[in-house]
Amino acid sequence: MSDQNVRNAGFTSSGIAGGSLASSMMSREAKASGGGVRSGGPTSTLQEMGARGSTHSSGFTSSGISGGSYASHMMSREARSHGGGTPRGGTTSTVQSISMGGKGGRR
């Protein structure tokens, strides 16, 4: 189900769908960073998954993050860089939220 959730959010094999949650995320992230979307951030990570058509190989699943996966390593790195927790709206929490059908911490 998480692959479909990523596509439903607008992250597709042909790019980010106009008028979608993905395009809104991309716009907010670009504005916040002064005009670009950073590599490794939520938008680029989700678009990479949408282009591949798979979230499971990364470890982001509808049941949560798979132990020992790329996703778990990403979560560990992000937690260490933030003093022990993954921040709301950070890459890991946003990608996991979208893959589970959520809105990625969108307010």
UniProtKB/TrEMBL annotation:
Biased composition (Low complexity): 13-27, 53-64
Polar residues bias spans: 1-12
Membrane topology: Multi-pass membrane protein
Ranges for region Disordered: 1-107
InterPro entries: IFI6/IFI27-like, IFI6/IFI27-like_sf
Keyword Transmembrane helix: yes
This protein's record includes keyword Phosphoprotein: no
Localization terms from the record: Membrane
A Pfam entry, by short name: Ifi-6-16
Cellular component, GO, one term: membrane
Top-rank taxon: Eukaryota
Keyword annotations: Membrane, Transmembrane, Transmembrane helix
Family assignment from sequence similarity: Belongs to the IFI6/IFI27 family.
PANTHER family from the UniProt entry: INTERFERON ALPHA-INDUCIBLE PROTEIN 27, INTERFERON, ALPHA-INDUCIBLE PROTEIN 27-LIKE 2
Protein name stated in the entry: Interferon alpha-inducible protein 6
Taxonomic source organism: Phoenicopterus ruber ruber
Lineage, broadest ranks: Eukaryota, Metazoa, Chordata, Craniata, Vertebrata
